[in-house]
Structure formats: C-alpha cells, structure tokens
Write a structure and sequence with these properties.
globular; Beta-Lactamase; Arc Repressor Mutant, subunit A; 8 strands; alpha+beta; two-stranded antiparallel ribbon; 6-stranded antiparallel beta sheet
Amino acid sequence: MRHNAGASVSVVGRVLDVFDAFSPHRPVLTLSELSRRAGLPLSTAHRLVRELTEHGALERDADGGYRIGLRLWEIASLAPHGAALRESALPFLEDLYEATHQNVQLAVLDGTEVVYVERIAGREAIRIQSRVGGRLPLHATGVGLVLLAFAPPEVQERVLAAPLRRYSPKTLAEPVRLRRALADVRRDGFAISDGQIELDALSVAAPVYGEGDTVVAAISIVVPSAGTDPWTLVPAVRAAARGISRALGAPRAAHRPPGTDPDTTRAE
C-alpha cells in the first residue's frame, strides 16, 4: 500500500503498510527494510513494529529480523472464509487428492482476485504458482473462472473492463472470449483451464455453494496437461464440490439425491 505525498495516513493504514512490506520472497525483514518497503519514517516503523511484536502480530528472530507472527494467523482464521470453510472442505479435498496425487486447491473470491485458502500437493505434483494465502487473477485460473462466472454482475464487468494480463499464449486475455467462457461455466457447472498460466498445467474447477445457495468458494485439481483428458476429471471434481456444499448446508446439495447430478458429457 502506498499513499499520496502529503496525504493524512491513519494508524491502521500504517500498520497495513508494515504487513504489506512482507512477501513470499521476503518473509523476513530488518527494521530498516520494513521502514523502506512500507514507506514509513524509521522512528514510526520502530514504534509500530515494537507494538506489533509485543502483541504477537510480528515475531523477531535471533538475528534481529522480523516475520509475520502466529497471532495474526490466529485472527485471520476467524474470517468467514477461514477455518470453518477449510475444515468442511478438507475431507473432500483429501479424497480428490488421492485420485491423482496432484494439486488440489480451495479458493475464494476477494475483490477481483482469487485467494487460495487451502492446497494439497504431493512431491510428484506438477509445480504451479498458487500457494495458501496467495492471490492470482480471476481470468487466468480454473477456480477464478468459476468464481467470476458466479460473481455479481458489477464484479464481472469490472474485470472485463480492466486490462487482462496475458501469462501464456492460451490466457483468456480478450474480453469477448472471457465473457463466452464465463457463460459456458454457468451453463456447465465447471471450468477447464488449459495452460492459461503455465502451459504444462491443466485445471478442472467447480463451484462450492453455501447456505444461501450462492457460490462461496471453488475447488480445482491441477494436473499435467500432456496426456490428460480433462473430461475424466470432471465427475470427481464436481462430486467433491457437491460434498463440500452439502457440508456447508447448501440446499441445492442437500436436496439432490445421490447419483442424480447431471454430469456434462463430452462436448463435440
């Protein structure tokens, strides 16, 4: 987070600047690095870091570096898309993982991005960019296409109107193609994303519904694209999503008798 010069910044804004200074590539920072990366005077950074460390939101290691503390993780787990969603989903994610021993993911919508709240992967799984707590754009991921397809219209239009980053030659970076893909997801109830970020990775994703029968999350399985027929994965992914929806109390999942889910047949 960066602020305009001369603008009045609240204490909360400065604290968020401190947290924003950390990244997956820089999980440990010195006080001077925190000051520079957060855009704060050293004296202000020192005061905020000291108070955050006293409350457990930051931790200091033996070398004097700071990292995110467990207290912050504890608070974050209380978010609506935190522990309750993960606990309901984990048994189904684990079953899905056993089918391929590849990457299985649970993600939610935050603004115009995907946030990954759980991921299971084996040592032999294909390497991908996603991580727990990480963010990726909606248009270029399987879970993102699902979440965007069922998002409010204003969110869809905001994404479609913004520049769509191209990660590979297969990325859906044209609004017309993306709009058509979202309509397909709403019709079919799943998404297949082939090589949109990594050319060698293929994702099959499906929506997870909550108590109000609205989409609250999406799950996906990511496998090597070479030699994989994505249609063979669709029934398993949809079944896992339906199981999580049932655990979350979604009426559409609870009222559907087992075995009656209309799995989509192969498109011509």
